[in-house]
Amino acid sequence: EIVLTQSPATLSLSPGERATLSCGASQSVSSSYLAWYQQKPGLAPRLLIYDASSRATGIPDRFSGSGSGTDFILTISRLEPEDFAVYYCQQYGSSPPYSFGQGTKLEIK
Amino acid sequence: QVQLVESGGGVVQPGRSLRLSCAASGFTFSSYGMHWVRQAPGKGLEWVAVIWYDGSNKYYADSVKGRFTISRDNSKNTLYLQMNSLRAEDTAVYYCARELLVVPGARLGYWGQGTLVTVSS
Q1: Most CB atoms closer than 10 Å: which of A70, A98, B107, B117?
Q2: Which chain B residues are Cβ-neighbours of A35 within 8 angstroms?
Q3: Any chain A CB within 8 A of the CB of B19?
Q4: Could you count the other beta carbons within 10 Å of the beta carbon of residue B37?
Q5: Helix or strand or coil: residue A91?
Q6: Helices (runs of H) and strands (runs of E) counted in chain B
């Protein structure tokens, strides 16, 4: 089973700043089958990025994903107030079980 | 529009069983793989199980293997999760989720609102 490690655990930034969230895998994620989700309190997760760099429908272009192999990045180019939330990465490149990272909390500084 | 509505959660004693349902609408249910994902209170997301679009393949997290069974009824547009031998550590909000694309792959593009399962004596 692939273990995903997200860093940092908490990221404190101000609106307008750039956010860089990392997701490291214990082994290579085949075909870059990695997704990023955003979750706000009391709500279900929302898919932001899939296949490492493809934005889901309706996701603003300030969100971008990159990476391959074992190292992946989610970048939010200019933070809006509604972007402060918890972010999870998830791999689906190998046979199940699929795994999520432990999450990065993006909080307002 | 795509809608997923979970039901069946509640309080159950350790060792007992519970069946969750997820009613799907707004899309061709029989064309998509479906998943269950759970989230313990204050914790992160944990993938639980997947079932292929036609029910031909099912996979589980090690933590639930042998105790939980995922199934679907494509004639009723409904996904199920039968949970047996429940433990305190199964306490969580359980979400059903639909794959984003018809092409298989656990890109979880649509989620239900979740149903809370509490295992306690």
Answers
A1: A98
A2: 106-108
A3: no
A4: 28
A5: strand
A6: 0, 11
